[in-house]
Write a structure and sequence with these properties.
heterodimer; A: about 120 residues; mainly beta; Immunoglobulin-like; 7-stranded mixed beta sheet; about 0% helix; about 50% strand; B: about 110 residues; 6-stranded mixed beta sheet; 5-stranded antiparallel beta sheet; globular
Chain lengths: ~120, ~110
Amino acid sequence: IAGITQAPTSQILAAGRRMTLRCTQDMRHNAMYWYRQDLGLGLRLIHYSNTAGTTGKGEVPDGYSVSRANTDDFPLTLASAVPSQTSVYFCASSDWASGNYNEQFFGPGTRLTVL
Amino acid sequence: GESVGLHLPTLSVQEGDNSIINCAYSNSASDYFIWYKQESGKGPQFIIDIRSNMDKRQGQRVTVLLNKTVKHLSLQIAATQPGDSAVYFCAEDLRGGGADGLTFGKGTHLIIQP
């Protein structure tokens, strides 16, 4: 593993189903983030975590939950998917401890379609 | 609404020319302003940032200018190359605290013509 990996690459999901998007980083960064990217709206922050054991709400947190049990993993869960959650989801991390929090490293994204 | 916005959705330039991508922001309290590049099918990639107490910062072939009077940010790319074709996003540290995530603008698609 090098950098940030996300899984799955893409997924088609029926509305009402539960889904967890996985994110793992091997850079030992303490801060991690989830963004969604929709055409014409740029990237919007869903949830973030400054360090293992803590999480916070971003701009669009409704319908999503996260956990940060350890430094490397930051899964995003959709408890009951709705079509408006169709989007491309990006996980990112930054080395907040060194002060380089503006340089976020992004994963390749997960394309999610909710029908 | 979005605090960070862009003047033009698409910018087309000739290979070898300089490119200027503009961005307007509304929150004077942001401590940092950042530029990201996103190539097709990939996640965004950090280019350069500038602190709010600076007017100009230079990197490799890129320069970021910050005009706090008119709340304007620009990214200048010198001698554009085909590899510069991408969507460019400006972002700001709107939430404060640094590690609490960034607020992104909607993006400008830079097209390099041969």
